[in-house]
C-alpha cells in the first residue's frame, strides 16, 4: 500500500489494535511488520503521536537483479543476497529483488515506471559470477542509475560501465600455494575446473604459464602433470586423483578449485584408503557450508561474500557515485581470508 501510493507520505496509520483487525493479523505479527517497515525507513514512530508514513526522501531503495536458478547452494549469489539483506535491515534501505529473466521481459516503458514508482537510487546486479547477457546489460543501462556488481569476474568490467567488485582470485590462489609451501609441501597438485560460463583460458584468473612461473619461483614443482583443468565430472576428477596417487612421486597436497571439489576429492581419497592429511593434504576455496564438518575439517580460503555485499551497498550510498558510462572501467578487488583446519598437515622438507 505504501509502495503503490495508497498510503501517502505523512499519513498516520490506525492504532495497532484497529490495524491488526483490519489486516486480519495478530498483534505480534503486526508489531514485527511495523518494526521492519521502520528499519527500512518506510514508516516513522513518534512517541505519543503514532506511526506515520515517511517522506520518500527519507527512504533509500535499490533494485537487486538476481540470476535465475540461484536456489542452488553452489552459487555465490545466495550468500551475496544474504549479505545485502543483512546490511539493508540495519539501515534505512529497501531492496526490491527481481530475477534477471523477469527484468528482461519488461518493456523499456515498464522498467522506467518501476524506477519512478519506487524512486530507485541504484542497482545491485548479481551476475552469478558469470559472463553477462548483453541484452540485460543494455536494459540496466537504460535506467541511468549507479550499478554495482558485488561479485564479478574480469569480463564483467570491459564495456559495462558498472562498478565491479572482484575477489582477487589470482592472489588468493597464489597465497594458497604459498601457505602449502610454508607447511613444507613442494609437490602440490592443482585441480581446477574448466567452466565455459566464466573466463576461458584462465585458471582462477591465472594463465597456465603464469602459474608455472609462480611455482618455479616459489621453489615448488612446476610440472604440467601437477596442473589439471577438467570438466566438472566425477569420472574425470577421480581419474586425475588415481593418476596422482599412483605415481612414483605423488603430490603431498592437492589444492582444489573450490570446496565442493575438495570435499569430493576427500571422499575419493578415503575410498582409496589414503589418509588425509597424513598421506595427502587437501585444501579448497570458498568456505562452502559444511566444509568445516567433514573429517578432517577442510582448510580453505573464504572470499567473504557478505563483505562484498556490504561494500556494494556502501558504494551505492555514496553521493559521489555517478550513473554508469559504457566508456569507463571500474573495479575494486575485495579481500579473502585463509581458514586453517585439519585437512592440511605440516611436514618437514627433506
Overview of the molecule:
By secondary structure, this protein is of the alpha/beta class. It folds into 3 domains: 16-56, Winged helix-like DNA-binding domain superfamily/Winged helix DNA-binding domain (Arc Repressor Mutant, subunit A), CATH 1.10.10; 61-168 and 305-336, Response regulator (Rossmann fold, 3-Layer(aba) Sandwich); 169-302, Rossmann fold, CATH 3.40.50. Helices cover 35% and strands 18% of the residues. The protein has 11 helices and 14 strands. The protein has helices at residues 16-23, 27-39, 77-89, 100-105, 108-118, 134-141, 169-182, 208-217, 234-246, 259-271, 305-317, and strands at 43-46, 50-53, 60-66, 93-99, 120-125, 147-149, 163-167, 188-193, 227-230, 253-256, 281-283, 300-302, 330-334, 337-339. The strands form 4 sheets. Strands 4-3-5-6-7-13 form a 6-stranded parallel sheet. The protein has a 4-stranded parallel sheet with strand order 9-8-10-11, with helices on both faces. Helix 3 (77-89) packs across helix 11. The model has no long low-confidence stretch (mean pLDDT 89).
Strand order of the largest sheet: 4-3-5-6-7-13
Named CATH topology of the largest domain: Rossmann fold
Helix run count: 11
Compute the number of structural domains. Answer: 3
Residue runs with pLDDT of under 50 for 5 or more positions: none
Amino acid at each position: 500500500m505504501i509502495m503503490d501510493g495508497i498510503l501517502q507520505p505523512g499519513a498516520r496509520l490506525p492504532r495497532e489494535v484497529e490495524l491488526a483487525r483490519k489486516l486480519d493479523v495478530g498483534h505480534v505479527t503486526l508489531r514485527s511488520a511495523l518494526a521492519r517497515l521502520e528499519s527500512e525507513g518506510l514508516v516513522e514512530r513518534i512517541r505519543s503521536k503514532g506511526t506515520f508514513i515517511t517522506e520518500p526522501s527519507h527512504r533509500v531503495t535499490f533494485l537487486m537483479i538476481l540470476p535465475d536458478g540461484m536456489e542452488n547452494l553452489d552459487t555465490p549469489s545466495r550468500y551475496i543476497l544474504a549479505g545485502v539483506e543483512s546490511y539493508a535491515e540495519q539501515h534505512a534501505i529497501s531492496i526490491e529483488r527481481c530475477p534477471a529473466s523477469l527484468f528482461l521481459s519488461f518493456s523499456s516503458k515498464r522498467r522506467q515506471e518501476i524506477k519512478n514508482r519506487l524512486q530507485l537510487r541504484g542497482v545491485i546486479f548479481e551476475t552469478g559470477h558469470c559472463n553477462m547477457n548483453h541484452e540485460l546489460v543494455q536494459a540496466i543501462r537504460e535506467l541511468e542509475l549507479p550499478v554495482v556488481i558485488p561479485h564479478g569476474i574480469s569480463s564483467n568490467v570491459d564495456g559495462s560501465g558498472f562498478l565491479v567488485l572482484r575477489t582477487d582470485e589470482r592472489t588468493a590462489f597464489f597465497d594458497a600455494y604459498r601457505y602449502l609451501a610454508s607447511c613444507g609441501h613442494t609437490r602440490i597438485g592443482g585441480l581446477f575446473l574448466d567452466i565455459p560460463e566464466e573466463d576461458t583460458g584462465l585458471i582462477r584468473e591465472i594463465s597456465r604459464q603464469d602459474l608455472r612461473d609462480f611455482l618455479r619461483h616459489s621453489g615448488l614443482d612446476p610440472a604440467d602433470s601437477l596442473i589439471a583443468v577438467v570438466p566438472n565430472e566425477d569420472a574425470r576428477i577421480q581419474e586425475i586423483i588415481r593418476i596422482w596417487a599412483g605415481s612414483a612421486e605423488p603430490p603431498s597436497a592437492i589444492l582444489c578449485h573450490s570446496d565442493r571439489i575438495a570435499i569430493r576429492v576427500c571422499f575419493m581419497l578415503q575410498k582409496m584408503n589414503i589418509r588425509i592429511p597424513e598421506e595427502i593434504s587437501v585444501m579448497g576455496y570458498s568456505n562452502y557450508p559444511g566444509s568445516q564438518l567433514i573429517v578432517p575439517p577442510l582448510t580453505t580460503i573464504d572470499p567473504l561474500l557478505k563483505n562484498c555485499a556490504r561494500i556494494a551497498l556502501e558504494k551505492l550510498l555514496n553521493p559521489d557515485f555517478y550513473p554508469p558510462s559504457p566508456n569507463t572501467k571500474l573495479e575494486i578487488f575485495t579481500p579473502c581470508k585463509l581458514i586453517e583446519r585439519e585437512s592440511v598437515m605440516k611436514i618437514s622438507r627433506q
